[in-house]
Amino acid sequence: MEHSQQVEQDASYCNWHPTVETRLSCSQCGKRMCTQCLVQAPVGIRCRECGRAEKMPTFDVQPSYYARAVGVGIAVAIGGGLLWALFNLFLGGIPFISSFAALAMGYGAGELISVSVNRKRSKGLAWIAGASVVIAYVISVPADSASWNPFGLILVGLAVYMAVARVK
User: Closest by alpha carbon to 163, among 131, 119, 122?
Assistant: First the structure.
């Protein structure tokens, strides 16, 4: 009988579900919570209020960063496309040299956009980087008619992948 009275005295109820008994409490504020209300955090269990997920600063991309990325993406697309076209025009006769131009374009586009937005990462930035490579490719096509072959398109795909990987 004494044991059951001890259990009744130790029983606490969830702060958000007053009919649910619990022995769990938030590691930050100490509020009681049930298993439905807990949030697993790297430092223990937290209540709903203390355990709210916040975006990591790397993935918190403000609209001003997107505007900056679009500006850099347009510059990279035009400038890179013209450089890519010149590269193909003067060195296009050398086998596989356009492969290096494509891969350099992808890496360069991704890196320049990444640096311009303080190394932030997001899907939107990945779309901008990928689009800048595709636009640069379209600009460079008149200088290298052989780039429409399957190998050339695979290289463009790899260049887009490299650009996206830098900012996603």
Answer: 131
